[in-house]
Amino acid sequence: MKDIVFDLIDEEKVRQKEGLELIPSENYVSPEVLKAMGSIFTNKYSEGYPNFKGLEDWDEDKIGSEVLSNYRYYGGQRNIDRVERIAIERAMKLFHADHANVQPHSGANANEAVYWAWCEPGDKILAMDLGHGGHLTHGSPVTRSAHIYNFIPYGTKDGDIDYDELEKLALEHKPKIILVGYSAFMKVPDFDRVAKIGKKIGALLMADMAHVAGLIAGGVHPNPLEHGFHVMTTTTHKTLRGPRGGIILSMGNVASPLKKTEKTIENIPILIDKAVFPGTQGGPLEHVIAAKAVAFGEDLKPEFKEYAKKIVENAKCLASELQSYGFELIGGGTENHLILMNVMDTFGVNGKVYERALDKVGLTLNANAVPGDKGGAFKPSGVRLGTPAITTRGMGKPEMKKIAKWMKEVMDICVADPELEKSDAKFDKIREEVKAMALKFPVPAID
Ligand code: DSN
Predict the structure, then answer these.
(1) How many angstroms separate the Cα of 421 from the Cα of each of 279, 413, 425?
(2) Is residue 45 annotated as part of the catalytic site, yes or no?
(3) Which of 313, 345, 378, 424 has a Cα at 20 to 30 A from 331?
């Protein structure tokens, strides 16, 4: 008998095809990425690392097991070593980094490893407040790292980083790490300004670019590693369009982590390797690393630059269409792929109710706090949406206009019927329109 899990996969395929994915941290992988992720590399253990060769003598076609100096704890690494090395080299090329560690299981693991590489328990880390767009792993009290390290939060002002506050806090607290990163922030950070502040106090400069890594790889967003930052973490499944996972890019000396290493900023790549394995993780997920390698290969192609450009164009178009319907956008618009709106103050509807109503018509986004929100995690005032996934499906300006129109129609229903109990027919009508448009745009690896 067929396992029910496979029925659910089939149902999820229908949901993904018939709806529009507006969650800014989601995307669709290619059939090739999916195939690598579902491969027999899942059968293999491979703790440790492949060789530590630099980019200068890299030749992907020539690499072979004989050139690899193994630091592995299991036999049978011939193919795994090559796959992991390919993922490393492609990641370095994408982000112009001296080193890449491709083993973190997620963005959260990647961040944790960087903290572990550089800080001692109790050390201070300056990072964006969760309520202002930062991420849970940047010091929210509910996370483990907040119990180990002493996070100092900085905020935003008018939608941008409050750089004066950041500088004041940095000079006052002298944190070991200054972290620029976020999951709900629509501006391009001034990396140079933060790097200047960091240099004054000798802090490690870390960027968590999980949301915009694909825009960086596609050349439509500055690369923090080219603006004085030492480390960049990212997930691989958002704008990079790879499998779920994380990576850490860094600048500095690259050598075997078996070597005794002095704790200096120049040695951060080596310290990071030690901090990922054995510091914070065991066996890497080599089937996921294989899929990362395939995705990075796709990201290096010229078409990916076009894709990244299109994501931002679509986000700007969607933002201005939404504004024309009276939506209030935090920061007054967007410079990346992300839009954050305060729907409570504008329409008197909280983000969760609006999220639920949009779900009924096949538009998927997420309720999100806005800066200074009093609604709490379960009744936040805002919603967050973005364009990476719908851009992958090939949508453009005409579709952005339709989406904004549907979003306003759904909001009108919420205002008239806040319990969403009397409006099924109205939702059904919009859902049919959304579905008809969605089905014209294939979903990679499903259609
Ligand atoms: N959960 C991710 C997001 O949606 O932004 C961040 O890790």
Answers:
(1) 52, 10, 10
(2) yes
(3) 378
Angular region, 355: left φ>0, alpha ψ -120 to 50, beta rest: alpha
Q: pLDDT tens digits, residue range 317-362?
A: 999 999 999 999 999 999 999 999 999 999 999 999 999 999 999 9
Give 266 Cα–ligand 1 centroid separation in angstroms. 30
Q: Are 349 and 383 in contact (CB under 8 A)?
A: no
The helix (H) or strand (E) run that includes residue 81 is helix 78-95
Element (H, E) at 111: helix 107-118
Residue whose CA lies nearest to ligand 1 atom number 6: 183
Ligand 1 mutation pick, 238, 338, 339, max ligand atoms within 8 A of CB: 238
- The active-site residue, picked from 81, 89, 129, 208, is 208
| CB of 183 sitting under 6 A from ligand 1 | yes
Does residue 144 carry a catalytic annotation? no
Q: Which atom of ligand 1 is nearest to the CA of 184?
A: 5
Catalytic annotation, pick one of 47, 98, 162, 412: 47
Residue carrying the six token digits 């989601």 = 26
Give the pLDDT mean for 276-280. 96
Ligand 1 centroid vs 379 CA: distance in angstroms? Answer: 18
Q: What 3-state DSSP class applies to 406?
A: helix
Q: How far from 331 is each of 157, 160, 184, 285, CA to CA, in Å?
A: 9, 7, 11, 39
- Tokens coding 37: 């992720």
Q: What count of other Cβ atoms lies within 10 Å of the Cβ of residue 378?
A: 9
- Asked if residue 230 lies in contact with residue 202, where contact means CB atoms within 8 angstroms, the answer is no
Residue of 265, 259, 243, 233 whose CA lies nearest to 112? 233
**Whole-angstrom distance, CA of residue 217 vs CA of residue 100:** 14
* Segment 373-416, tens digit of pLDDT: 988 778 999 999 999 999 999 999 999 999 999 999 999 999 99
- Type and span of the H or E element at 49: strand 48-49
| 41 to 28, 36, 38, 364, 390: CA distances (angstroms) | 21, 8, 8, 33, 30
In 192-316, beta strands by DSSP E: 204-208, 231-235, 246-250
Do residues 188 and 336 touch, judged by C-beta distance below 8 A?
yes
Measuring CA to CA, how many Å separate 303 from each of 210, 307, 308, 395? 21, 6, 9, 15
For residue 116, give the H/E element and its range.
helix 107-118
Q: How confident is the model at residue 51 (pLDDT cuts 50, 70, 90)?
A: low
Q: Residue with the nearest Cα to atom 3 of ligand 1?
A: 25
Ligand 1 atom 4, closest CA: 25
